[in-house]
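Thread: N-carbamoyl-L-aspartate complex, take 2
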Amino acid sequence: MTFTQRHLLGIEQLRPDEITVLLDLSDKYADRNRSRATSTDVLAGMTQINMFFENSTRTQASFELAGKRLGADVMSMAMQASSVKKGETLVDTAMTLNAMRPDLLVVRHPHSGAVDLLSQKVDCAVLNAGDGRHEHPTQALLDALTIRRAKGRLHRLSIAICGDIAHSRVARSNIMLLGKMENRVRLIGPPTLMPAGIAEFGVEVFEDMREGLRDVDVVMMLRLQKERMDGGFIPSEREYYHRYGLDAEKLTHAKEDAIVMHPGPMNRGVEIDGTLADDINRSVIQEQVEMGVAVRMAAMDLLARSLRERRSAMDKGVMA
Ligand code: NCD
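Output below.
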């Protein structure tokens, strides 16, 4: 079993055995992060550049910390104040950075497909930190690791993804990953927040929370992504909470030991009850953040290995 990807652009490109390799290594980093010896020199001498064209707190901090723990030189560009504001195109920005010879480029962009496009223009490894409503692969991987550690396995589980599915790259990447690992995925939400072509996803769709949550092992809540909405998708936040907000009562319909997840940032009292989100017996939201660093360390470690192999093969003249 090997990981041969050149970039981490999406879950779509990953085989199940590559997902397992990545999660196994993430597990090791998660244990290591809990010990005192958090730092290694796996990426020593390598340069990681973070380019976030969209606001981010946890994902950017997590990638930054992961790179630093692996010994890379990490630089986060302030994209709000960059030449992009002066009208430079994405490709020009990428070419400029490429000329500085980074090894790893971590990119978040509001347009679906922008990170794929950029990856075609540079020589380094590119990691997608979220592109529009398309993919957010490291989020799905950290969710998978959290589930695997809590449930002891990552197959034959029943998982409900609830809320604003239509605007969510987190949901898309999770649906693909959980499907590839042979789990049963249910989507719960109002029809206005379901993406078109949902039938092709191989999932079950529910409009009613209590019905959809019945006997699930995992409840994954999503934020209402108002910044991606251009009209009235929900009647009011109050009504939304009433019908789709996760609270202790609705959770009684899931399995007794079902875990509660949320990628953050959370809107307490809109999609989830604040007390439930903080309940360490049910909620694994903090573990998700913790696993995020481990998964990003593993992803960058594996991509750096394939980058080194490619470079040494090129040095030997094996590759064109
Ligand atoms: C998610 C994102 O940016 O897609 N957040 C995250 O990365 N933790 C989800 C969201 O913004 O709601």
